[in-house]
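Budget justification, computational time. The allocation requested in the original proposal was used primarily to generate structure tokens for proteins on the priority list. As evidence of use, we reproduce two of the resulting records. The first is shown immediately below.
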Amino acid sequence: MYDTVSVAGLNAILWTLTAVAILLSVGRFAIRYATAGRFYWDDASHMLSILLLIGLAAAYTAGFPYSARIARISSKQEAPPPPTDPFYHNYLQLRLVVTLLVFMVLWSVKATFLIFYRLLFDVSETFIRMWWAAVAFTFATFW
């Protein structure tokens, strides 16, 4: 992949799509405020999702040069650094951060939908029981 798209190109794609997500979210917040006159808990969860997404994009931006270097090493274009080189440690730390942020973004979006559904369908006792079961399952499977 790094032989066809540069790190700068990947960064441009990543931040363009992140900006689109932010703009769509701003539109969502504007519509919510215009129609309801206030914000709800699902909006707070959605804001958390956006903040986590920005953190994820930043972590990917920091990790692209490491991934490009690994691609060069695996294709024998560059000699691997010695095992004591901090490159490996930094790369593994970034991979851990990216993995954690991916799951946090996904689950915060799930929480947003769950909260939104609770606001929409707070009329049936059966639905509330099913909703709590879905919440319990969602949070039990987080890790």
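The second record produced under the same allocation is shown here.
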Amino acid sequence: RPPRLRRPISIPKPILQWRKDQLLDSGWTSDDDNSRLGEHWKDAFRGTAGGLPDDNTDVIRIFLDQSQDFSNNYGKQQATSATYHGLYIPRNAAIIMFLTVSPRNKVERRRVPAAEIPKYIPRLNQLSDLIWLAWDNLVSNLEVLRYYAVEHIFNAIAKPLMDEIFQQRRGVAPATDIPWSQRLTFDLESDEGRALFASPNGIAVNWLLIHHAGVLGRRRPRVSIFNPGGYNRCMIWDLVPEGGEGSFGEVEDEIPGVWTGVGGG
């Protein structure tokens, strides 16, 4: 018997006001506070239209967590859960996610024997749904969303992909520091840009642009990748409006015959 799903929720207004009781009733736990922005992100935003954000007033840290349970002959069990923690910066039209673990990721990381995993895993709100709801809760004009970033990238697809790009473009070994000043920027005309767009950390951007095209309009995504601290692989998507200019410099030139993609081929 499949587990009963909790009813999906919409994060209510007013601006900057979370209704934690409603989130809790729907299975989500939530918290928010002010948070200091890493120096590598300050370097990134310093040259944008919003300027350098103020830690005390502009940077809002939001936690969203949910656990889905089911019952069987052994009692109540956890089927899966989701963890989405991020920084929201309305002044800079930016979202930075620093912990994104999807329901399927959680099952895999728990190393649950296949026989114990329910055939029907409850559907939880995905990352792109939640960051859109949270953005709606913080700003009055949704269409201004411009930057979506992820740090501490560790998934088995994006991590080796970024390492290979760094090796081919910068000639460095994995976990080598690559500061913001040495970032690599790609558009979707490049093989690297398309590969990053199809990675787990690009899919949220893909989903946002497809499902909210009526609000966001036509965008020409560019992605910049860097590694400010050993294992802290970061990427930031610049959702460039049609006819607009990218914020983070020119894109990399193609290198014919060099790019192979993860695993070669």
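A brief technical remark on that second record: The mean pLDDT is 77.
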